[in-house]
Design brief:
The chain is mostly beta strands. It is built from one helix and four strands, in the order ββαββ.
Length: 54
């Protein structure tokens, strides 16, 4: 995970409440039903990940 000013070629762009998220196709497939939370104490937490296909 990194901070980017915009998407790379082929990225999928998601927007929620003004937050833009840029994902590769593989990351989008894995994160499709995931929830991403952020807390000051723990940073980012991702739950509900899909299994990798390979």
């Amino acid at each position: 995970m990194d901070i980017a000013s915009g998407p790379s070629a082929g990225d999928i762009t998601l927007e929620k409440d003004g937050l833009m998220i840029y994902l590769t196709e593989d990351a989008n497939r894995i994160l499709q039903n995931a929830t991403i939370n952020y807390t000051d104490e723990g940073g980012f937490e991702i739950t509900g990940l899909q299994s990798s296909c390979c």
